[in-house]
Amino acid sequence: MKITKLGLKNYRNCTDVSLDFETQKTLIIGKNAQGKTNILESIYFLSDLKSPRTSTVSDLIKFGENKFEINAAVEKNNTDIELDFAYDTDKKRELKINGVKSSPRDFKQVIKTVLFCTKDLLLLRGAPQDRRDWLDRAISQIYPAYDERLSKYDKIRIQKNNLLKNEIIDETLLDIYNEQLVITGANIIFLRKKFLKEIEKIAARKHLIISSAEEFSLNYTCPEDEIENISAYLKQELIERRREEFARRQSCVGPHRDDIEFKINGIDAVKFASQGQQRTLVLALKLSELEIIKEKTGYSPILLLDDVLAELDETRQNYLLKSIETGIQTIITSVDTILFEAEFLKDVKIYNINNGAVEKGEII
Ligand SMILES: Nc1ncnc2c1ncn2[C@@H]1O[C@H](COP(=O)(O)OP(=O)(O)O)[C@@H](O)[C@H]1O
Ligand SMILES: [Mg+2]
């Protein structure tokens, strides 16, 4: 899978941008706040119909304009596919595959991306919500129905929260909500654990290579793996913490509260690992995500590297750049080309971006 062309109209600060991705590797070079991340964000958007930076799609419309458009040409299975997305200030969105109106689910299936940005380097230190988001995004690239399950779960959880806010709580209704939460929640946890088992295996191998001797493992809040056992675990937790939920007037049990614990040599990486160790771990996780998507869907995802190279030391940079050599389409943003070795730059296409306008660039 490959994106061959990208066109943006009134997307953030990009008034009218068109890019060709003829080579496997593309570098987008520009100073701060010129629009580098905006370009990667727009490609990511085509794969997820969500921005990693905002949950408000209208934020993506250029200030003062009333509509943005993203168009892309994709090569998949030796076939050319055309993607068109538009969104206006009336919240009307248009999705088209080859000029024909498409469902969000089909649209999201066309391209897969793995985005690696500086914020990811804080994955271990961030809030549990950041780790859940990472996990959920990665899983929804593999299982298209996962997103729908998440929204179903959220809907019931919000209803339950509203119920818990009442002066007198209808416990019969609460039990009905809890039953539904157990069913959808167990499903979500089941898929999360399945994904984590796989990523743990691959990431442990990669981690061992980058860090030479350190072992990596991870734990998820719910210790069970099978759907029946997860359901039983959730039911038990809901009984045990019923009073707490009453007191706090909110839903305290379930996948929306779970977290992942990362360990290096058996020790909690969040509390005790150095910044370098944490970065190695995140790098291993990201590259594993890429491998799993490739394995599960049969397509190499597009790797989007947003400003991360400068944040990594030489060993990690080399490991990352070496991993890219294996035929994965990669789009990289950076302030300059200094960090890249001549060998790497040989077959790279370079663009310069300045105030949202893009032009062909050179090695500097
Ligand atoms: N909706 C928008 N309309 C116009 N400009 C925007 C919009 N959203 C963000 N920007 C501008 O985009 C620039 C940041 O772009 P970004 O891609 O994050 O830069 P960088 O090159 O540092 O990655 C800022 O100048 C910001 O004001
Ligand atoms: Mg940026």
CATH architecture of the largest domain: 3-Layer(aba) Sandwich
The total of beta strands comes to 15
Cα Rg: 22 Å
The sequence of SSEs as H and E is: EEEHEEEEHEHHHEHHEEHHEHEHEE
| CATH class wording of the largest domain | Alpha Beta
Mean pLDDT: 93
Q: What is the SS-derived class?
A: alpha/beta
**What hetero molecules are in the model?**
adenosine-5'-diphosphate, magnesium ion
Q: What is the rounded distance between the termini? A: 30 Å
Main sheet specs: 6 strands, antiparallel
Helix segment tally: 11
The number of domains is 2
CATH topology grouping of the largest domain: Rossmann fold
Helix content: 40-55%
Poorly predicted ranges? none
Widest beta sheet: strand line-up:
2-1-4-5-6-7
- The CATH homologous superfamily of the largest domain: P-loop containing nucleotide triphosphate hydrolases
Quaternary organisation of the protein chains: single chain
Q: What sort of overall outline do the alpha carbons produce when their principal axes are compared?
A: globular
